[in-house]
Amino acid sequence: METSVIDDVEINLSQPSDLEVKWVGQEHVKNQLLAAWLVLNDSDVPLTPRLIGLPGVGKTTLAYTTAKELGREIYFIQATMDTRPEDLIISPVIGENQTIRYVASPLVTAMIKGGVLILDEGNRMPEKSWASLAPLLDQRRYVESQLAGITIHAHPNFRMVTTMNTDPSTFELPEYILSRLQPLIELDFPSKEEEKRILKLQVPFADDEIIDMVSAFLSAAHLEEKPFTVRSGIQILRYALKLKKVTGQSQQDCLYQSIDQILGEDALDLI
Ligand SMILES: Nc1ncnc2c1ncn2[C@@H]1O[C@H](COP(=O)(O)OP(=O)(O)O)[C@@H](O)[C@H]1O
Ligand SMILES: [Mg+2]
Fold this sequence. Notes:
Blueprint: E1 3-6, E2 9-12, H1 27-37, E3 50-53, H2 59-69, E4 74-78, H3 85-88, E5 90-94, E6 100-104, H4 106-113, E7 116-120, H5 127-131, E8 142-145, E9 150-153, E10 159-165, H6 175-178, E11 184-186, H7 192-202, H8 208-223, H9 230-247, H10 251-263
Bound molecules: adenosine-5'-diphosphate and magnesium ion.
Magnesium ion (MG) binds near residues 59, 60, 120 and 163.
């Protein structure tokens, strides 16, 4: 296990995450994220943007693929309402002979190694946890571990982004936190052509006919301002094809059943 020593305290580091992901279309949001992370000269600092949009619109995928383009290690934290400050910084574990070992969070590991930290669904964690990151999110670029009694400074290559769903089951964060999570990068529905390419990429064994049907369904949903995203489109497509394989029913019947079971009966009105 990789370790690092800070102020004579040895800490175990976390593992980076490595996923195969691809981004289709919407170059402008990717450029916004790359610009936020860019450092222009020695007196400049990177920004920590907030990626917002409906669940399933592509926020996590955008963060991940853009981070990959930087060619640095990627670390990931899934925020929940139980995420505590020590989960974000350093937590203790009991080692051999009852000694305490310190384990760096993915965030602190990214800070030490100069990686990218994706704090996913950041508005699911409470203000108290965000407060522990306040100095990291401005020019100071450090965090303090109360537990280990040390201050960790971010490597110049450290970058961070947080994603936030625009749905009601989340915390309203205070202004002093939100003002540090800038700029706001808003992810909207892809164009119809892009949506089709995403469906094809994620479900490559689907034929054009059913992809066109799901794409038409998503377009109708966007027009009606329903909160259905390409994630639902991918699930509908997958489930319809599985149903067809098992039941031998027509593609269209399977598609309708799939929509009904995934989004509910009302969604069928969109067809
Ligand atoms: N532009 C895109 N290119 C490729 N895949 C996408 C794109 N947008 C969404 N997806 C796919 O849609 C699904 C939902 O995306 P995700 O990033 O998890 O959404 P969010 O984080 O906003 O909830 C994933 O399977 C993802 O791969
Ligand atoms: Mg996500």
